[in-house]
Automatic annotation (TrEMBL), chain A:
<dbReference type="Pfam" id="PF00005">
    <property type="entry name" value="ABC_tran"/>
</dbReference>
<keyword id="KW-0067">ATP-binding</keyword>
<keyword id="KW-0472">Membrane</keyword>
<dbReference type="GO" id="GO:0016887">
    <property type="term" value="F:ATP hydrolysis activity"/>
</dbReference>
<keyword id="KW-0813">Transport</keyword>
<keyword id="KW-0677">Repeat</keyword>
<keyword id="KW-1278">Translocase</keyword>
<dbReference type="InterPro" id="IPR003439">
    <property type="entry name" value="ABC_transporter-like_ATP-bd"/>
</dbReference>
<dbReference type="InterPro" id="IPR003593">
    <property type="entry name" value="AAA+_ATPase"/>
</dbReference>
<dbReference type="InterPro" id="IPR027417">
    <property type="entry name" value="P-loop_NTPase"/>
</dbReference>
<dbReference type="InterPro" id="IPR050107">
    <property type="entry name" value="ABC_carbohydrate_import_ATPase"/>
</dbReference>
<feature type="domain" description="ABC transporter">
    <location>
        <begin position="6"/>
        <end position="241"/>
    </location>
</feature>
<dbReference type="GO" id="GO:0005524">
    <property type="term" value="F:ATP binding"/>
</dbReference>
<keyword id="KW-1003">Cell membrane</keyword>
<feature type="domain" description="ABC transporter">
    <location>
        <begin position="258"/>
        <end position="501"/>
    </location>
</feature>
<protein>
    <submittedName>
        <fullName>ABC transporter ATP-binding protein</fullName>
    </submittedName>
</protein>
<dbReference type="GO" id="GO:0005886">
    <property type="term" value="C:plasma membrane"/>
</dbReference>
Length: 507, 365
């Protein structure tokens, strides 16, 4: 572990007047996993952009294998053995796994693509690194975890020995994360090196050797992971003490806010939700834990009017709202933070202000007689930006240009500002940094303390256990058990999520 | 900070137009014609004198409206290829109403005829919208099919209902229903310029207002950019599709109505679908669906077609050269990414130089 494979020396990158990276130096050794920790917008992606040839540094030097290099394009970086696995995969859904891997570097035989050789090469690499992929499957048909393995294989296929992972676990289930960590170790065992961008401290603790903490474009410190506590790293990252506890107010009286009875939902011909019943009372957060794809999305779609309920009934505030249109459900004071912020929760090319009124644009005071009042819409935007600490240049900025955490804050701001009786939140902190997570958790808990009902669906066990008053475990479209989060560990919950009907798991 | 998106929104169409003219010039040079002389006569044919200007503006009128119609549907994410058929039905409806109700007073008759034209176009296009919303039928296919139905229906109706035996054209509309007036004729040396032009300008402003300032326009843009998010926000995607197609057809129908009352003054059996429906798509494309940009783009296309007539008057160059220019412009709009790439490259370079200069300044300070 002594040879240095990557050295970045005094790197500065400016965009106009804004300094994204300020005199950053770091080294990556052979066989090492180096974590890069920082909040959204701290400058991690910019730094890695320079290492992967997308950006050119304003000042500073980069050495690869002790040779000074100047990279003008991602192609140069690839040629030097640097492979980047992006957060949002760069795959063509309609192509097969094999075609995606070789795309751009197809092996030729007399001008024709030599698929046989490609398949052999890929299978050899897959065996070496224990990467299970089905090279003939279409990318559209495979899971997110598998897509990520395809991305890793793309880099391996191009002989990369330095791997940059940009928030690789943001879209993965706990099981898939475990798999990825195994792959990390397999890669480094073979002498490759990894730079791992993340803001999940647990994962850093789990696999990384050293951790570089970046805040506001500057390096705060480089620490030895084994000798540093998670809390210390978190504080270095955000620059203040993290308060991870939440305060739950005592709720004395409560009434039923949401009643779901024997609901079944179909998706593409099969039953995704089977005869499911649950209630949410005012002043409680009910968590639904479960592995992705066990009917959670279909259940929420049905509750919010985006999918038809086949049988059963949904009552909101005591009123039957089964299969009502989405707008009617919204108007019955249901707020909904959807799982997919970029494709469902927001319209990226529209402004922050327009997105903040996406559900209320047609109502007074934003609209009168069918005409929009942009003055009030923008004023509302400015108010919410301030109240919810959304970091942006102006309310007229396109929402698509905000960082993930701030995009999520826009959704949270809109849903909470609508003052709902019931808040449905699906993976509300997926892919956002610790600071924003803390903030969003606080806001959700605040709703509970204000005697609203909250239904929380999350793949993050820690989130579920921290926030919920009750946790329901969902498996294969059914609730397989209810647990008390105070007396249950993440491990026990994990077992139930895997489908083990351990009804007496509560001690 | 430089606003790159805004700059390229203007630069791309301008560059496309220039590139189109350059291609036209190269073709002329290859075949031994003088591009400078020809472009000169094109320009004077379109703009020299009140008569030419009147003709150009008259030609521009239906182009503005069919382009606006196309823009409305594409903002909502749909391609209304049926502008031609909707235009033809609008034209037919306007003439039919003026001939059948010729006893009404002038202004009432005109308003009635224009409304009939708009409604005919709107309903026709609305059929495609309904099929799309409730059955998912591709509006591209249905609008093309509806074009042919409109075409053969109008030919049949004109032949059987509006013309005398053996004739191919209807009677002319009474002059009280005409959008041409002695005032405008005097102003433009007896050109075919008519009041429809001002209606089209007004409609362009209304459509701009509709896109940006109304609930319905906001829904249109939302559904056009992200259907899933619109559904999540509680908008009715079905309703939006139908409204978009209906409004789109209204505009194309209006184009036909104004052309009928202002330009043609009657309706004849025709050999093919009117070209103006398709030209409107090109205009909207060049203007990137911006209503105010459509005015400029329509002016350009009208100038090309009216001015193009002069090319063969003053030289042996065939008028078709204008079609090459037009087609090239559309081609260059189609490859706008090439221009955006060039602009970006140019801007980054400039930014870099600026940065270097300011860095030097920092050091001095």
């Amino acid at each position: 572990m002594t040879t240095t494979v990557v050295e970045m020396k005094n790197i500065t990158k400016k965009f106009g007047k804004f300094t994204a990276n300020d005199d950053i130096s770091l080294t990556l050794k052979k066989g090492e996993i180096l974590a890069l920790l920082g909040e959204n917008g701290a400058g991690k992606s910019t730094l890695m952009g320079m290492l992967s040839g997308l950006l050119e540094p304003t000042a500073g030097q980069i050495f690869i294998d002790n040779k000074k290099v100047i990279m003008n394009s991602p192609r140069d970086a690839k040629a030097l053995g640097i492979g980047m696995v992006h957060q949002h995969f760069m795959l063509i859904p309609a192509f097969s796994v094999l075609e995606n891997i070789i795309l751009g570097d197809e092996p030729n035989k007399k001008g024709r693509i030599d698929y046989k050789k490609a398949a052999q090469d890929i299978e050899r690499l897959a065996d070496k690194y224990h990467l299970q992929i089905d090279i003939n499957a279409k990318v559209a048909d495979i899971t997110v975890g598998m897509q990520q393995r395809v991305e890793i294989m793309k880099a391996l296929y191009r002989n990369a020995h330095v791997f940059i992972f940009d928030e690789p676990t943001a879209a993965l289930t706990p099981q898939e994360i475990g798999e990825l960590m195994k792959i990390f170790r397999a890669l480094t065992d073979e002498g490759n090196s990894i730079i791992f961008i993340t803001h999940k401290l647990k994962e850093i603790k789990d696999v990384a050797h050293r951790c570089v903490v970046i805040r506001a474009g500057k390096i705060i410190d480089t620490v030895d992971v084994d000798n540093t506590a998670e809390e210390t790293m978190a504080e270095m990252m955000v620059g203040r003490k993290i308060d991870n506890s939440i305060e739950k107010a005592e709720i004395t009286e409560s009434k039923l806010m949401l009643e779901v009875e024997n609901v079944s939902v179909e998706k593409a011909g099969h039953t995704a939700v089977k005869n499911l019943s649950l209630n949410v009372k005012s002043g409680e957060i009910v968590g639904i834990a479960g592995v992705d794809g066990n009917g959670q999305s279909e259940l929420i779609d049905a509750l919010t009017g985006l999918r038809k309920v086949k049988t059963g009934s949904v009552k909101i505030n005591g009123v039957d709202m089964t299969n009502s249109p989405t707008r009617k459900i919204t108007e019955a004071h249901v707020g909904y933070i959807p799982e997919d912020r970029q494709n469902v929760g927001l319209i990226l090319p529209l402004s922050i202000a327009e997105n903040l009124t996406l559900k209320s644009y047609y109502k007074k005071p934003f609209s009168k007689y069918g005409f929009l009042n942009h003055k009030i819409i923008n004023q509302n935007g400015r108010d919410l930006i301030k109240a919810f600490d959304i970091r942006s240049q102006s309310e007229k900025e396109k929402v698509g240009s905000l960082s993930g955490g701030n995009q999520q804050k826009v959704i949270v701001a809109r849903e909470i500002a609508s003052n709902p009786d019931i808040l449905i939140a699906a993976n509300p902190t997926r892919g956002v940094d610790v600071g924003a997570i803390e903030y969003i958790h606080e806001k959700i808990n605040e709703q509970r303390n204000q005697k609203k009902g909250v239904l929380l669906i999350s793949f993050e066990l820690d989130e579920i256990l921290k926030l919920s008053d009750r946790v329901l475990v969902m498996h294969a479209g059914e609730i397989v058990g209810e647990i008390d989060p105070k007396n249950t560990s993440a491990e026990e919950l994990g077992l139930m999520m895997a489908g083990k009907k351990v009804t007496n798991i509560q001690k | 900070m430089f606003n790159k998106t805004k700059l390229s929104a203007i630069a791309v169409p301008v560059m496309s137009v220039i590139a189109g003219f350059i291609v036209g010039a190269i073709v002329m040079l290859i075949f031994g014609y003088n591009p400078i002389v020809n472009y000169g006569s094109l320009f004077s044919g379109a703009f020299s004198g009140a008569y030419s200007i009147g003709e150009t503006l008259r030609d521009m009128t239906p182009l503005i409206l069919t382009a606006l119609g196309f823009a409305v549907s594409s903002k909502a994410g749909f391609f209304n290829i049926g502008g031609s058929g909707q235009y033809l039905l609008g034209w037919f409806a306007a003439i039919l109403v003026t001939l059948k109700f010729h006893t009404l007073p002038g202004l009432v008759l005109i308003i009635f005829a224009i409304l009939a034209a708009a409604l005919a176009g709107g309903l026709w296009s609305g059929i495609a919208g309904y099929l799309r919303a409730y059955f998912g039928t591709s509006e591209v296919i249905t609008t093309i099919m509806l074009n042919y139905i409109a075409f053969y229906f109008v030919n049949f109706a004109v032949k059987n209902w509006l013309t005398a035996k053996g004739e191919d054209s209807s009677a002319n509309i009474p002059s009280k229903a005409s959008l041409r007036t002695p005032f405008l004729e005097n102003l433009t040396q007896n050109s075919t310029f008519h009041w429809g032009f001002f209606i089209a300008l007004l409609v362009a402003v209304i459509v701009w207002f509709y896109f940006n300032k109304t609930n319905s326009g906001f829904e249109l843009r939302s559904v056009g950019t992200n259907e899933a998010a619109s559904r999540y926000a509680g908008m009715s995607v079905k309703k939006t599709i139908i409204v978009a197609m209906f409004v789109s057809g209204i505009l194309a129908g209006l184009a036909g109505g104004l052309d009928g009352l202002g330009n043609y003054q009657n309706i004849s059996v025709s050999n093919s679908l009117p070209q103006v429906g398709y030209d409107g798509m090109a205009v909207a494309l060049l203007a990137a669906n911006n209503p105010l940009g459509i005015l400029l783009a329509a002016l350009l296309f009208a100038a090309l077609s009216i001015g193009g007539l002069s090319i063969s008057v003053f030289s042996t160059t065939p008028t078709e050269i204008v079609s090459i220019v037009t087609a090239s412009i559309i081609f260059f709009v189609g490859i706008k990414y090439a221009f955006e790439y060039l602009i970006n490259k140019f801007l980054t370079k400039k930014e870099l130089i600026k940065k270097l200069n300011s860095a030097k300044g920092d050091k001095k300070a």
